[in-house]
């Protein structure tokens, strides 16, 4: 993709507005907390302290809107406390340009590295740096700076208290994640009726797994219906696939296929009912027709062999899902553990330290954002525009570790700031609302931002820019700065951010082959783990198979996220065209699907072992590991070990007396051959 086209695509993305479900009650709660903090501090301490406390409450509320399954009060407290520390340290050096620049560089570098912990921590850290640039201009002494910092922390405390005393849809994010996972499996069941080899996107299941991890405090309060259904959905998915696939399930046409379609439809309806009950905290309303379809004795008369076993297991698992969705008891020991914020500190430091290598995109982002923030501060201070912090503030807020988000947000930031600053400055200059009037307008803008922040960055930036103008106007700051000056400084910050990525990029495109190789290795380990348990039966619940499956999903998601980021990069494909990437993705998805079909029929503990499966598992491991090395080196991957095993079985040499293994081994090799074709076909050299 050319630079011109890339800029055009990212600009369109940044200015787009998405249709998302609004949460007015949550937005109103955040605005109420802000209003309480501003009103009390304005009456007791004056406009300057009120502005500081307002920034603390504003940032704390924004932190609770981030995609995180941690307790929202904890996020608000952590955000307010970290911003208070940032502001106080910033004020101590604000009157000395060189020390302040050093502090700004250090703080920004750490904020850039914070993305290694996750996007929520990265966004909060970046916001702390941006707001610090504004709040350090408000105090007049060290004592007042300490007071301002304390009021910022109080702002976070108030928001946390409101979340506790005025809860809005408790456990709503966790309910939605689990319901989305069940709904995704339900949709998969319906698609299998028409496409027996349909693919499944594991993202909803991975999201539900992340949501299921709880802190000790959450474990004591979690609703019982949020426990257990995710694991059942995980176990249902391979059973659905094995029931529908003609290779190991019912024939493609005939009475057996018709019966399978009825069972798949019933499974979809029951899973949807369970998802609805969990999402809304209501009893499960079972569709009578679906229940009858699963309980009819005709299934045993029509289906035989593997399809019959899959149908029986499906009915049992669906019954467990319905039972789990109803209120029941659980113990805290049954919950997946999520570390508290205190215990997360050494983990976070370890992740940040691991990114201190030249090829790391996180380290490159930290270096870029540090250089841009310092350069923007120096340029903004040198220009005769006043309040030069608008430039570095814009840069820090828009910069992200990847190209598309940085450029899209730069365009959105400028557009939103242009509109917001123009409107707010016009109101201030025309109406002269005064301290209390400006405070009221700031609260209204905050409500608008909270309400629309998930619909698009440009829309939210209109309210953010207006919010800053009204707060500075309330404190008597920035009244002399014109609309043109603020817009020019924001434009300067956005341009610096975009130039930094062009000069010191961290392109995703050249890393795509590495991500594809990681997925291949993970798929191979998963398939090998499944096959190995035919030689050593341990029942359906095998920890090593489970861990290998999670590794496969993580690698697949990493590939898909990398491919999405690379789509809009102005970089050539470097040996992996878009068409080749699509075909390679399909091949590896098929490899994982065949392994999933074999997993659905793992022999029970104590069943007769199949010794030949051990040789197939070892051949799979060796072949995929060597193939991954070839993919990274841009060579044609070969599967000699696996091919030798499959060919020997086809010739009757050591073939196992097991239908699924004899059928599954050639399917695994076929998927890997498709990967080789996708990566070596000469017609795909040009995209």
From TrEMBL:
Residues 377-499 form the Integral membrane bound transporter domain. Residues 82-189 form the Integral membrane protein YccS N-terminal domain. It is found in: Membrane. InterPro entries: Memb_transporter_dom, YccS_N. Pfam families: FUSC-like, FUSC_2. It is a multi-pass membrane protein. The chain crosses the membrane at residues 31-62, 74-92, 98-116, 149-168, 366-390, 410-428, 435-452, 458-475, 487-507. GO terms for cellular component: membrane. Signal peptide: none annotated. It comes from the Bacteria. Keywords: Membrane, Transmembrane, Transmembrane helix. This is Membrane protein.
């Amino acid at each position: 993709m050319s630079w011109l086209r890339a800029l055009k695509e990212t600009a369109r993305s940044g200015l787009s507005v998405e249709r998302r479900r609004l949460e007015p009650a949550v937005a109103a709660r955040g605005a109420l907390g802000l209003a309480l903090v501003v009103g009390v501090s304005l009456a007791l301490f004056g406009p300057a302290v009120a502005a500081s406390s307002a920034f603390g409450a504003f940032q704390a509320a924004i932190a609770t809107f981030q995609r995180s399954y941690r307790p929202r009060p904890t996020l608000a407290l952590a955000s307010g406390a970290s911003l208070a520390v940032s502001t106080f340290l910033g004020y101590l050096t604000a009157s000395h340009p060189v020390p302040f620049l050093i502090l700004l560089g250090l703080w920004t570098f750490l904020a850039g590295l914070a993305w290694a912990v996750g996007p929520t921590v990265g966004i909060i850290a970046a916001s702390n740096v941006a707001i610090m640039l504004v709040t350090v201009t408000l105090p007049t002494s060290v004592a007042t700076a300490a007071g301002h910092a304390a009021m910022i922390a109080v702002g976070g405390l108030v928001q946390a208290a409101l979340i506790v005393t005025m809860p809005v849809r408790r456990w709503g994010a966790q309910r939605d994640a689990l319901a989305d996972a069940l709904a995704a499996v339900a949709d998969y069941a319906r698609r299998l009726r028409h496409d027996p080899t349909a693919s499944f996107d594991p993202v909803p299941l991975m999201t539900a797994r992340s949501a299921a991890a709880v802190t000790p405090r959450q474990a004591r309060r979690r609703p019982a219906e949020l426990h257990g259904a995710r694991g059942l959905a995980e176990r249902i998915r391979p059973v659905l696939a094995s029931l529908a696939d003609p290779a190991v399930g019912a024939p493609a046409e005939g009475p057996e296929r018709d019966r399978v379609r009825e069972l798949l439809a019933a499974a979809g309806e029951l899973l949807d009912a369970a998802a609805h009950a969990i999402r809304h905290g209501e009893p499960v309303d079972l569709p009578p027709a679906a229940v009858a379809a699963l309980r009819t004795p005709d299934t045993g008369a029509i289906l035989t062999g593997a399809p019959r076993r899959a149908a029986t297991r499906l009915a049992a698992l669906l019954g467990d899902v319905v039972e789990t969705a109803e209120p029941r008891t659980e113990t805290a020991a049954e919950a997946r553990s999520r570390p508290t914020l205190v215990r997360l500190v050494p983990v976070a430091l370890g992740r940040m330290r691991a990114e201190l290598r030249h090829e790391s995109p996180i380290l490159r982002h930290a270096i870029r954002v540090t250089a841009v923030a310092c350069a923007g501060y120096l340029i903004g201070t040198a220009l005769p525009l006043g309040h030069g912090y608008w430039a570095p503030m814009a840069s820090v807020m828009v910069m992200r570790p990847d190209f598309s988000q940085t450029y899209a947000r730069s365009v959105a930031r400028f557009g939103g700031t242009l509109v917001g600053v123009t409107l707010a400055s016009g109101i201030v200059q025309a109406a002269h609302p005064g301290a209390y009037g400006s405070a009221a307008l700031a609260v209204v803008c905050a409500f608008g931002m909270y309400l629309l922040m998930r619909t698009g960055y440009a829309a939210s930036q209109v309210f953010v820019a207006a919010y800053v103008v009204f707060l500075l106007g309330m404190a008597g700051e920035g009244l002399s700065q014109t609309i043109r000056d603020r817009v020019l400084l924001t434009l300067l910050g956005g341009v610096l951010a975009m130039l930094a990525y062009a000069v010191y990029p961290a392109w995703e495109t050249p890393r795509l082959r590495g991500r594809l190789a990681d997925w291949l290795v993970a798929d191979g380990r998963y398939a090998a783990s499944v096959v190995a348990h035919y030689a050593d039966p341990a029942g359906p619940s095998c920890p090593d198979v489970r861990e290998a499956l999670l590794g496969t999903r993580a690698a697949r998601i990493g590939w898909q996220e990398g491919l999405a980021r690379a789509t809009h990069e102005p970089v050539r494909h470097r040996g992996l065209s878009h068409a080749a990437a699509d075909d390679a993705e399909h091949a590896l998805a098929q490899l994982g699907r065949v392994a999933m079909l074999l997993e659905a029929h793992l022999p029970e503990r104590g069943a007769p072992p199949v010794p030949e499966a051990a040789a197939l598992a070892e051949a799979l491991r060796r072949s995929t590991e060597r193939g991954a090395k070839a993919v990274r080196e841009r060579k044609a991957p070969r599967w000699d070990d696996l091919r030798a095993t499959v060919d020997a079985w086809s010739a009757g040499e050591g073939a196992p007396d097991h239908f699924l293994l004899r059928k599954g081994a050639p399917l695994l090799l076929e998927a890997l051959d498709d990967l080789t074709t996708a990566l070596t076909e000469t017609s795909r050299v040009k995209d």
